[in-house]
Each structure stands twice: as C-alpha cells, then as structure tokens.
Amino acid sequence: xxxxxxAQVQVKSFEEEGKLITSLRAEINKVIIGQEYMxxxxxxxxxxxxxxxxxxxxxxxxxxxxxxxxETIGIGFKRIQFTPDLLPADILGTEIYNQKTGExxxxxxxxxxxxxxxxxxxxxxxxxxxxxLEAMQENQVTIGDVTYRLDKPxxxxxxxxxxxxxxxxxxxxxxxDRFMLKLKIEYPKxxxxxQIIERFSKDRVNEPPLxxxxxxxxxxxxxxLIDEVYVHENIKNYxxxxxxMTREKNIYIACGASPRASISLIKASKCKxxxxxxxxxxxxxxxxxxxxxxxxxILLSYEAEAEDITSEDLIxxxxxxxxxP
Length: 325
Known about the structure:
Elements lengths: L1 H27 L7 H13 L3 E4 L6 H12 L3 E5 L6 H5 E6 L4 E6 L6 E5 L6 H13 L1 E4 L2 E4 L5 E6 L12 H4 L4 E4 L5 H11 L15 H12 L5 H15 L5 E3 L3 H17 L7 H12 L4 E2 L1 H5 L4 H11 L4
Parallel strand pairs: 1-8, 1-9, 2-5, 5-8
Antiparallel strand pairs: 3-4, 6-7, 10-11
Organism: Acetivibrio saccincola
Pfam family, one: AAA_lid_2
Family: Belongs to the MoxR family.
C-alpha cells in the first residue's frame, strides 16, 4: 500500500510541476510572439542540462528569447558575439598581474553564467570554438593552474547563420555532437508578425517587469524529477532501433549517430513527457524530439548532397521503417 501511495504522490507532483511550465510559457509569451517551438526547446535544455544549436537568419528573436527565459527564472544571462579575432581568453577569462600585490588575479570570462548565448559561433576560428565546447562538455574551466566549476544550471545556446558562408568556420561534426538539440528557426507567421509590429513599434519602457516563475533551486529540483520519468524497455528499444538504423549501410549516410544521440534522445523524450504533465514516456514524445536530436548527427554523403536529400528526409524514412512499440 505504501508503494501505491508514493506513486500517487509522485504523479500529483508531476502534474503540479507541469503547471509551472505552463506558467513559464505564458510569462515568456508576454515578450516573445510565436516561436513556441524555440521557447519549449530552450526550456528543455535548461531542464536537462543539454546545450542547443540554433540555425536561423538574424532577427528571429533568438537573443531576446534566451534573455527572456533567463529573466523569468532569475538566473544569469550573457551574450558573446563570435568574430574572427575572438580569443579563448575572451570567453573563459584570464590571469591579470596586480602590480600592487605582485600577484596574478583571475578575471573570469562571460562563460561564468547560467545561460550563455554564443552568437554566430561559426564566425570564430576552431581554437575558440574548441575552448567553448570543451567547457560545455566538462562543465569546468581551467584558467592558469586553477580549475573552476561552472554554475548550475549552465546552458549554451549557440547560433549560426545558414546563408552567409564567407568568413565562417563551420563546426566539425564531432563538435556539433556535443549539442543535445539543433533547431531550425523559421520566420514567424503573418499574423504573428503583425502582432510583433504592434507590440514593438511603441515605447515599452513603462511595461512591468516579468515575474520570476521559477527559481534556481526549483530548476535543480525539476531536473531530479525528470530523472524519475519512467522509460519502458519497449521505448528504449524503439530509440535504439532508430539510432542503429542511422548506422546501417545507406548510400545517403556517410556516418550515423553516436551513442550521445541515444542518450540525448532519451533525455529529451523524458523532458517532453514531463512538460506534458506525464511521468512516463510514450512514442509520440520520442517522435516529437527526434528531428532536433538527430539532424546534426547524421553526416550526409556526397550522393545525398547531389540529390538535395536532407537529414530530415532520412529521419522521416527511418521513422517510417521502424516499428512502433
């Protein structure tokens, strides 16, 4: 009987915490019009500790969305504009000599925050990209001889422009693999853009500040709750069937998804279930996030590029072939 009571308490907790996410979305929507997909995935990144790569042209509210999410949670937000002359120390920090004391002091870089927006990450050379991505992987930074743990929660949102190619340093596949999700951000719909015009064409100075919906501690509690989301063996096998099919011999796939993809797909599916108010994963949870998890992890062959076949096309084919649990 005790187990049943505990289960009932847990389900109730999932439903109540799910309402927090609904309130968070509503508060963010006071500033962000449309882009529900991007907002949900950024929240997903915060709740799972998974970093996000955004691909979209400038002006689609990527920076504003990240800043707004941070504001509604009351956590730190910093933005770095990546440029060809950026140095690793500009991100991580450096040692500065203090003439008065005769000692070196540490000046921490912008990476010491909760949400870091790495704008146009493919504008900086590989050495700078590696410095950031290594910090993302290890959740720590070494400056001089001292290693510092990064703050929690820590989320990197990196953006890249799909159009401009001159003066860019594309992220290698191994580095892209460190991002849990890759999103393709589209233009707002006509009615949404009309609302954007109406809202942002007037002075917004006197608007009330956004309410803090979640606290830092609540975020960490939600992470623990998401860890408890139940994943049936059939769902695990469904995920593995999808991942392993990307590795099968295919004229259009040069390299399939790594084990990181399996981990990311499970984590994202559990978070999706939680955000829907459930404490168990269903196949639709997996299908709703699989494109974001896999689109940057499937390396296309020359044949695919020649025939204009995208990773999304291949993911669709895989989903059609894999049997539902």
